[in-house]
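Task 17 of the worksheet. Students: predict the tertiary structure of the chain below and write it out as structure tokens. Keep your answer in the requested format; marks are given for formatting as well as content.
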Amino acid sequence: MKSFASDNNSGIHPQIMQAIIDANDEHALGYGDDLWTQTAESAVKNELGKDVEPLFVFNGTGSNVVALQLMTRSYNSILCAETAHIYVDECGAPVKMTGAQIRPIATKDGKLTPELIKPYLIGFGDQHHSQPSAIYISQSTELGTIYSIDELKAITALAHQHGMHVHMDGARIANACAALNVSLREMVTDCAIDTVTLGGTKNGMMMGECVVVLCDDLKPSAKFVRKQSAQLASKMRYLSCQFSAYLTDELWLKNAKHANEMAIILAAGFNQIKGATLTQSLQTNQIFISLPRDLVDILLKHYFFYFWNEANNEVRFVTSYDTYKEDVEDFIAILHHEAGKLGLFIEKED
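Model answer:
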């Protein structure tokens, strides 16, 4: 049975698995000096621009600490939403690896705005204060919401005006592109993002992410920082070959579109449940919803999903590329059946 806990729980797309099998051929030079990595680098450049520098790494936390180290020193500060992955879910790795202070900013929807950021742009040149140097954003956010193109441009313009850099955590960037119907280049390069994590693990890959460095000033030290951060794979071809398949014939986009579509169908199943309230706008493949606690407890006996905020019975459901319509329909059938037993099911009017 499929779960709705996380797109991290999904399997490997067959085309990605085949790419790994195909790369497992004879011997190849290590540390990225192989044909598979060169091919994958070209694929990334085709999407984001010929001058970008792709760095394949093991995981999302590794990608974030590599990118943030490029744009900070230990006396700097990193601004982010209070729900940001680097602040909530990475066990202090960004602080340990950069030495920089993280300044969380309260948001209602996981999205930073220039208005929210500006009060933190203080103390420049004052030796008593950490110097603001980087802005971290997630696209899509940890709450499933999306920055528009104009919102991204406004943030990067503000950052660059103050000599700062912007890192975009794109663990679910494919879902954001699918929702906005824009390309990776429109989302990243055209918005003047300085570094981005091109995520794949949550969208059909086995493992690995790609830190893409777009800012020329950050490129000279990028490979050294990756190595020092223990993110340089010796058998690089098994990471990089996945991206070649991922970026071929828009597999990345097709997977994300499907996941988003399944979330819409799943969310509609809650429309007939008394007390069901979406707590965030449904924009990608993550559903945040408050449900009666008795119903949540029963559903957890059938399916695995996570509490987001147990205090208000808010839970999160996540769909992925391998969530099929039948999986969603099976869940909705159980949802309506169990809700009916609790007197929480609302019959449709004819």
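Marker's comment: The CA atoms of residues 272 and 350 lie 14 Å apart. The first helix runs from residue 14 to 23.
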